[in-house]
Amino acid sequence: MNKLEKTFPKGFLWGGAVAANQVEGAYNQDGKGLSTADVSPNGIMHPFDESMKDLNLYHDAIDFYHRYKEDIALFAEMGFKCFRLSISWPRIFPNGDDAEPNEAGLAFYEKVFDELHKHGIEPVVTISHYEMPLALVKNYGGWRNRKLVDLYETYAKTLFTRFKDKVKYWMTFNEINVVLHAPFTGGGLVFEEGDDEKSIQYQAAHHQFVASALAVKAGHEIIPDAKIGCMIAAMTTYPYSSRPEDMFAAIEQDRKTLFFSDVQARGYYPGYMKRYFLENDINIEFQEGDEDILRNHTVDYIGFSYYMSFVTSTDPEILGQVTGGNLFEGVKNPYLEASDWGWQIDPKGLRTTLNQLYDRYQKPLFIVENGLGAVDQVEEDGSIQDDYRIDYLRSHLLEAREAIADGVDLIGYTSWGPIDLVSASTAEMKKRYGFIYVDRDNEGNGTLDRKKKKSFDWYKQVIATNGEHLDY
């Protein structure tokens, strides 16, 4: 038997990931319409505020809109092979249902893609990432309305047609399962008293499934060599004890996430969800042809975020011991440490998640978000010694390498927030993820100057050696 090789494959896509609303700024420039993020000044866990009286860091973000060349040059210096970014839907269709796209918006992204290619960096584009035209919420009720399927399809086709020679990797929705956990952010859903919220959320998810499948269809037709994936917020759930009831509770918890990748990767609604809908009096309205659309246009790969694992229990007393996380919460795991924001750090859980997803789908996987939000200190000499971030990323990459040795087909890794950006969950700047520091604080003060952290050179080494040298 040959010696076991623990290496990242040749051509592995190393890079970083951002979202338009968290980095671009210029929220009201060049014809862009208001987005749901533009009226969410306190982050996605809070109700939106159309008056926007509170400070909204999303409005200016880190000004990537005007500084993208400087930032891409820094990514190139690190050796990025790819860069995951999203396109702002209201920058292309300000109201979502406009007769023609906004040329200034299309031209901006064309310049960004050209700049990436100039540096040999492959764009990986998310079509809808935690924002949508606010007008679609006001006029249609967000994704609860079937009309959005057609509007999204038009939007996707517009992008594919314009950028067919510049972008080969696409994802349809960011963390699509978040519609259950942050319905305004994930689906533009605003509830009124008496609404059957759970039914509306799952109906909105169905509309997104159909829209995603139609985007896969259009993408393959317009860009025959394109790879179009889904994207879920993934985490492994452990049973708190070895009680059989706890074990099945963990399975059920995982299924709340896996349902979203099941439909997009397998092309049909799984039996366990049909039972859930029956037992909870949830009736999903299918239009004629929906089943064929889902079945015939499954995704090419599964993209996912991984920040933490969770624990669940059937013991009410244990269930009271909750810990926070990326829009989710679970029972505190006594064996794990946590970040400053309570996100439990579990590198081994990434290997488990990779194996779980690959065993389930046998499709290529792409880790498109993984990172540590932390408070960084600028030292007197100007340096930022973020060893804690290096430790976090290194430990997760070691487990990703183990998963590859297990036989998992992993095509890439984009760390979340390679440059500091506005946090989605809390809408603050002090929760930093980047290899690059941005001089801006929670009050919106600062020069926006960029500064390399210690992790910058570490990640540069990781990429240069294709993940062979992870130490520092």
UniProtKB/TrEMBL annotation:
<dbReference type="InterPro" id="IPR018120">
    <property type="entry name" value="Glyco_hydro_1_AS"/>
</dbReference>
<dbReference type="GO" id="GO:0008706">
    <property type="term" value="F:6-phospho-beta-glucosidase activity"/>
</dbReference>
<dbReference type="GO" id="GO:0005829">
    <property type="term" value="C:cytosol"/>
</dbReference>
<dbReference type="Pfam" id="PF00232">
    <property type="entry name" value="Glyco_hydro_1"/>
</dbReference>
<comment type="similarity">
    <text>Belongs to the glycosyl hydrolase 1 family.</text>
</comment>
<dbReference type="InterPro" id="IPR033132">
    <property type="entry name" value="GH_1_N_CS"/>
</dbReference>
<protein>
    <recommendedName>
        <fullName>6-phospho-beta-glucosidase</fullName>
        <ecNumber>3.2.1.86</ecNumber>
    </recommendedName>
</protein>
<dbReference type="InterPro" id="IPR017853">
    <property type="entry name" value="GH"/>
</dbReference>
<dbReference type="InterPro" id="IPR001360">
    <property type="entry name" value="Glyco_hydro_1"/>
</dbReference>
<dbReference type="GO" id="GO:0016052">
    <property type="term" value="P:carbohydrate catabolic process"/>
</dbReference>
<keyword id="KW-0326">Glycosidase</keyword>
<keyword id="KW-0378">Hydrolase</keyword>
<feature type="active site" description="Nucleophile">
    <location>
        <position position="369"/>
    </location>
</feature>
